[in-house]
Amino acid sequence: MNATQIEPTAALAELKEKKPDSVTIVCLSGDLDKAMAAFIIATGAAAMDMKVTMFFTFWGLNIIRKQDTTSSAKDWMRKAFGWINKGGTENLPLSRFHFGGLGTMMMKKVMKNNRMPGIPELLETAQDLGVQMIACTTTLGMMGISKDTLIDGVDQLAGVSTYLAEAKKGSVNLFI
Amino acid sequence: MIESDFKLDTLGYFCPMPIIMTSKKIKELVPGQVLEVASDDEGIKKDMPAWCETTGHEWVGLEEADENSVHVYKAYVKKAGG
């Protein structure tokens, strides 16, 4: 065998050179505060010229559903569930002190008064900065959420392999 | 006193807005020009050098001043490339 000798330090340097700065964020939570953390990191990373991919699954799907959309499923259980689990950034509750909407409303007002961007603004900024958004097909199907009730700009529908392939490349992978 | 070619006002905005506004504004500059970013968010003292390190733009320095009873941080960034 006449294998070419590989110089470890050179190989490492080359690998480091080639490794792209990429960030993946799994958005499982549909809570306002957690979505806010996810979007602040996503937009911040994109502003730092990093490639950012956000995977929306389970409750996180509510963030990328059109406002007030319900389930498209035909069976009564998912239909009923769809009425209490409406999509849209305006419907996201706080993880604490939601108080039937009153606490969340007050928090949004405080944020607005302090010129802090809300989820709709952060989402728009993220899309503006080229953050890639992927919706999880399994949970879409499970909750009976159809593709046409998702917001424009969701790049693709995919599963765990797509996430892992992307996460493998990334140096920052978060689960929120 | 650091000289700048462009000024960006981010007063009143919290993280991550100053960084996002900077990343958009820097695109309007030509390499070698200096951007002044004014912010009242103390986080910019650490965030802007970190942003420079990641993006490759040059961190020039920071100045602080009290203007109209607001403590203003002025971060200076030189656009890289050529």
Keywords:
heterodimer; A: 176 residues; alpha/beta; Hypothetical Protein Ychn, Chain: A; 5-stranded parallel beta sheet; 7 helices; 43% helix; 14% strand; globular; B: 82 residues; alpha+beta; Translation Initiation Factor IF3; 2 helices; 4 strands
| Strand composition percent of chain A | 5-15%
- What oligomeric state best describes the polypeptide chains here? heterodimer
Helix content of chain B: 25-40%
The CATH homologous superfamily of the domain at 58-91 and 119-176 in chain A is termed: DsrEFH-like
**Uncertain segments of chain A:** none
User: How much helical structure, as a percent, in the residues of chain A?
Assistant: 40-55%
Which two chains share the most extensive interface?
A-B, 15 and 14 residues
CATH topology of chain B: Translation Initiation Factor IF3
Low-confidence stretches of chain B: none
- Give the terminus-to-terminus CA distance of chain A: 49 Å
Number of DSSP helical runs of chain B:
2
Q: Quick one: biggest sheet of chain B? A: 4 strands, mixed
Name of the CATH architecture of chain B: 2-Layer Sandwich
How would the global form of chain B be characterised?
globular
Overall description:
The complex is a heterodimer of chains A (176) and B (82). With 176 residues, chain A is an alpha/beta fold. Chain A has a domain at 58-91 and 119-176: Hypothetical Protein Ychn, Chain: A. Helix content of chain A is 43%, strand content 14%. Chain A contains 7 helices and 5 strands. The longest helix of chain A has 16 residues, at 32-47. Chain A is globular. The termini of chain A are far apart. Chain B has 82 residues and is of the alpha+beta class. Chain B has one domain: 2-Layer Sandwich (Translation Initiation Factor IF3). In chain B, strands 1-2-4-3 form a 4-stranded mixed beta sheet, with helices on one face. In chain B, a hairpin with a 2-residue loop joins strand 3 and strand 4 (70-78). The longest helix of chain B has 12 residues, at 44-55. The termini of chain B are far apart. The chains are: A alpha/beta (176), B alpha+beta (82).
